[in-house]
Amino acid sequence: MKFLSKLAILLLPVSVATAVPIHGPHQHGTLAVAVTKENSFLTFKMVIPSQDILGFEGSPKLPSQKKTLNDQYAKLYQENGIPKLFQFEPANACFPYSSNMESDMLTYHEHDDATVKSEGVDDTHKVGDEKGHSDFELTYVFECDPVERVQITFHKVFPSIRKVDFYGKGELKGEVLLSIDASKAIVSGEDLK
Question: Where is the signal peptide (predicted)?
Answer without folding.
Answer: 1-19
